[in-house]
Specification:
heterodimer; A: about 500 residues; alpha/beta; B: about 500 residues; alpha+beta; nine-stranded mixed β-sheet; three-stranded antiparallel β-sheet; elongated
């Protein structure tokens, strides 16, 4: 291990300090992570592509630059979820249909941190087209949870979460459509934040469900989360749905929660929360009160309809978003076809995996003439009600808290045969996407040998309020466990 | 035998002449090498997002306002889903149940008959890419070996104007389109170039018992861009439908192809017609909000519309409706005419020359009004020489042709080719005397009271002077000569 650095514990804040004060070279820092990748990647499989040579070369260049020209994140080794396009670096979205796709441009969020001179270590694994909650749906193999290699890391940003947890990256970018940052962050014992819809440009994020997708950070601390978020946030002329920041993202320092009112939605706790998760959640709630905050029960009455509404809207948008993968202009084209229509059909049949096909079919059906109003129209009305639930709640409380996931990491393969059980993983997170709100997941302890996530949800554009509360709680929780790379049990 | 009347509706697509495409920064171009104006957005690369072209919205609002539509304060883009190689996203961003503008009308003329067609809506969308079918006959897809896609056109801003089925005849459909094209060109939003397909349309057609209010089953003629073929197609389709109905049959709702060679319509791809476009709101775009103040500003800045200009030409210049429509229908011709009048030409004379020699000259050369050597000032100079008697009308027409062919000034050609009018009374009197002497029989007729024979003598004098004699003076001299020796 280079210079005695522990990649399982090092934060970006500390790494940045070491770099700025000249105690550490960017090349050493990057080598620390590349070494860790070398050591654990064959067990974790967090990456689809590791760009080791480019990373090492670029880190060396940063060392040679004068300090004044270094960007705000210069030299910090980063994993990028492989659904953000990176010019000249293969971007697969976890799908065979894009297996060899070379993007001709770079996603705005990535371009921004490249401009800050971060070092990209590689492209992290994900469920194909970000559709899944376990990172088992990747065409390039599943990612394993570094806390227990027999369990999943969550998903769809499971590669990003596992990479950060396993010390294979200092931090990572992920995307969250129904919980895809927060749930894997929870299952891997790290911090993950989904910003307000529109806060981070989606330009260059391969679309799954356009009205729900949002890019965000996966980090080892709340402070790091703010560090990364403030560099990727902000409006973008290339994304009409992006918004200007009402106020800059601040680096959090709060240690108390005096006068902050928290709401606990009773509907979320009714959703089959595991006892171990519930215990950690209740413990964290009592910490809130010790820090001077108050907690009251609130109601989000339309919660039970959020899941079905989500599984209409997201597949409907996906069915159109994924129609462009037709083998004509880029990506995979099947050689087993004699005419145009057959080429479309066979290319898509061979290029997409089963979960993607399931959602395309659900979405196509939901938008069909004669069914539109009963499905898509109704789901949009439910979405409005879910949003109103939150509006009503935020008239009473400052923030809402819940477990991030009803369970800890589950065994690999245990839910793949039952899509509905898999969809339940996101029951506490996806209403937040329907409402377009920001939310963070922070680790709040272990249940058995596996981490538990604690979710804090705020009103639109309340990132600073969420980060401050999360920072105070993080300090009080004092979570300091690290993954053990426990081997999968025989036969599991 | 019952009488039937046609009911025709049109959906007109107009490509806008904006600098850039509807949803990306690529240039809108003509005749550039294929696939040289593309980007991740218009090629539908993963992750690319559309951004609305503000100028295209302004142009669309101009069209909507010129058609008297209500511009809705909030409109929504939808995705229209279908697979085809010319549509890289496999959906077209269009507008559906919340279009840009609704509820206008378009006034047009068929001869002296004023017709009003209600406009259902005006909406915005993006054009598809261009397919080039290779290896078959005449670029048709049938029989071609393969097809190539040119994405330069893909994403060009497109406006769809949907009429109500208010158009009563094939001829009216043609007039509607020609006059609508004039309107759009005059608004400065599109050249509506026919060859390049900048304006094209679908027509739907049905027939019903004359005077009834119901609508029969309609057929559709898709993607046409020739006024003449449209009229021919409709003139073939109307009797076909009437014949089917009179034979007790029913009309199938289908899309037809018109073959200009046979002059007949034939059904097209009826199986593929069962499209379900699965429209839903485009989540990558926020609703389009049209600020009412801005809309009013666009309205104030609208140029004079053709219908108003035709009325003005009738009152201001005393032109007939027909002349005013021919000259005032298109903005370029109207401008040329008004320049001609402003340069001192008497309005009626200016109208005759604009519609006569000048229009023929444009037809022959393919020039647009106001372009080429014959400027309004040059033509006005020639017509001043007609008005002051320097040249006759007949000689002026010869002079016009010479001005064009020699790229010369009116005064020069008249002098060089000796086209000046002879107004020398003494010289003409000698010619008149000779003609009178040569035609004693006609002189007898005149003196017998048949006064119109005077015209014969004038003609003979003009012939003898190769048209250069001042006709008014000749007329005077002929009558004087014939009156001599007439019994009192």
């Amino acid at each position: 291990m280079t210079a005695g650095l522990d990649p399982l514990r090092l934060t970006a804040r500390e790494a940045r300090r070491l770099l700025v004060e000249g105690e550490l070279a960017a090349s050493e820092l990057t080598k620390t992570y590349l070494d860790q990748i070398e050591r654990v990647e064959d067990r974790v499989h967090a990456f689809i592509l590791v760009t080791a040579d480019n990373a090492a070369k670029y880190a060396t260049e940063i060392d040679q630059e004068a300090g004044a020209t270094r960007g705000a994140l210069a030299g910090l080794p980063t994993a990028i979820k492989d659904n953000m396009v990176t010019e000249g670096v293969t971007t697969t979205c976890g799908s065979r249909i894009l297996a060899n796709y070379q993007p001709v441009y770079t996603a705005t969020a990535v371009r921004r941190i490249w401009g800050d001179h971060i070092v990209m270590l590689g492209k992290s694994n994900l469920d194909e087209f970000a559709m899944g909650s376990s990172t088992e749906n990747s065409a390039f193999g599943a990612t394993h949870n570094p806390w227990d290699l027999g369990t999943v890391p969550g998903g769809s940003s499971g590669g990003s979460a596992a990479a950060v947890a396993a010390g294979e990256a200092l931090w990572a970018l992920g995307s969250d459509t129904g919980g895809s940052i927060r749930q894997p962050a929870a299952l891997c014992g790290i911090v993950g934040m989904k910003p307000t819809y529109g806060l981070v440009s989606r330009y260059g994020l391969v679309a799954f469900a356009s009205s729900l997708d949002q890019i965000g950070p996966l980090t080892r601390s709340v402070y790091d989360c703010a560090m990364l978020l403030r560099r990727i946030a902000g409006d973008d002329p290339c994304d009409s749905t992006s918004v200007a920041l009402p106020a800059p993202i601040e680096l959090p320092s709060a240690e108390r929660l005096d006068g902050v009112h928290f709401g606990i939605p009773t509907e979320y706790l009714a959703a089959g929360i595991e006892p171990g998760v519930m215990a950690r959640f209740e413990q964290t709630v009592s910490l809130i009160e010790e820090l001077g905050g108050t907690c009251v029960e609130i109601s989000l009455p339309h919660t039970e309809y959020a899941l079905p509404a989500y599984y209409i809207i997201a597949p409907a948008e996906a069915s159109a978003n994924l129609a462009r993968y037709d083998g004509v202009r880029y990506g995979y084209r099947s050689p087993h076809a004699d005419d145009l229509t057959e080429m479309y059909e066979v290319t898509r049949a061979e290029g997409f995996g089963p979960e993607v096909k399931r959602r395309i079919m659900i979405g196509t059906y939901a938008l069909s003439s004669g069914y539109y109003d009963a499905y898509y129209g109704q789901a949009q009305r439910v979405r409005t009600l879910v949003r109103r639930d939150f509006d009503t709640a935020f008239a009473q409380v400052d923030l809402i808290v819940s477990p991030t996931s009803p369970t800890v990491a589950f065994g690999m393969g245990t839910r793949t045969a039952d899509p509905l059980a898999m969809y339940m993983s996101d029951i506490c997170t996806l209403p937040v996407n329907l409402a377009g709100l920001p939310a963070i997941s922070i680790p709040c302890g272990l249940a058995g040998h596996l981490p538990v996530g604690f979710q804090i949800i705020g009103p639109a554009y309340s990132e600073n309020r969420i980060l401050a509360a999360a920072h105070a709680l993080e300090g009080a929780i004092g979570f300091d466990a690290v993954p053990t790379f426990r081997a999968a049990e025989a036969g599991s | 035998m019952s009488a039937w009347e046609p009911v025709i509706g049109l959906e007109v697509h107009v490509e806008l002449d904006t600098a850039t495409k509807m949803f990306c920064g690529c240039a809108v171009t003509k005749g550039e090498p294929p696939n040289t104006h593309t980007c991740p957005v218009c090629l539908a690369h993963p992750g690319a997002l559309p951004v609305v072209n503000e100028r295209a919205v302004e142009y669309a609002v101009r069209i909507a306002l010129a058609l008297g539509c209500e511009v809705r304060p909030r409109s929504v883009f939808h995705r229209k889903n279908y697979f085809y190689p010319d549509l890289p996203k496999a959906y077209q961003i269009s507008q559906y149940d919340e279009p840009l503008a609704v509820g206008g009308s378009f006034t047009y003329w068929v001869g002296d008959e004023r017709l009003v067609c209600r406009i259902n809506r005006v909406h915005m969308e993006e054009d598809a890419a261009k397919l080039v079918h290779a290896g078959g006959e005449a670029g048709r897809i049938a029989g071609s070996d393969y097809s190539l896609v040119d994405f330069n056109r893909g994403g060009t801003p497109l406006i769809e104007i949907v009429s109500e089925p208010d158009i009563p005849s094939p001829e009216a459909a043609r007039e509607f389109l020609q006059q609508l094209r004039n309107l759009v060109v005059g608004l400065g939003v599109s050249e509506c170039n026919m060859e390049e397909g900048q304006i094209r349309w679908d027509a739907n057609i049905s027939v019903r018992p004359a005077g009834s209010d119901g609508l029969g089953t309609r057929t559709e003629l898709k993607n046409m861009n020739s006024f003449r073929f449209l009229q021919q197609a409709l003139e073939s389709e109307v009797p076909r439908q009437i014949a089917v109905l009179e034979a007790g049959g029913t009309i199938d709702q289908e899309t037809l192809h018109f073959d200009p060679d046979t002059g007949a319509t034939t059904p097209l791809r009826s199986k593929e017609e069962a499209h379900d476009y699965r429209y839903f709101p485009e989540p990558d775009l926020v609703p389009l909000l049209a600020d009412p103040d801005w809309v009013e500003q666009v309205r104030r800045e609208l140029p004079e519309l053709p219908a108003a200009r035709v009325e003005r030409f009738m009152t201001q210049y005393g032109l007939s409706r027909y002349d005013a429509a021919v000259i005032g229908g298109g903005v370029a011709m109207a401008r040329f005419y008004e320049d001609l009048v402003a340069a001192g030409t008497e309005p009626k004379l200016a109208a005759n020359w604009t519609m006569g020699e000048y229009a023929a000259h444009l037809n022959a050369t393919g020039l647009e009004p106001g372009h080429g050597h014959v400027t309004a000032e040059r033509l006005a100079a020639l017509l001043r020489l007609v008005a002051d008697g320097t040249v006759s009308g007949t000689a002026a027409k010869q002079a016009f042709a010479l001005i064009v062919s020699e790229r010369a000034e009116p005064g020069e050609v008249i002098e060089r080719h000796d086209l000046g009018q002879v107004s020398d009374a003494a010289a003409l009197r000698r010619v008149v005397a000779a003609v009178v002497a040569d035609h004693p029989a006609q002189v007898e007729q005149f003196r017998g009271g048949k006064e119109q024979v005077a015209g014969f003598f004038v003609g003979q004098v003009m012939k003898a002077t190769q048209g250069k004699a001042n006709p008014r003076l000749v007329d005077e001299l002929v009558r004087a000569a014939l009156a001599e020796g007439r019994p009192a």
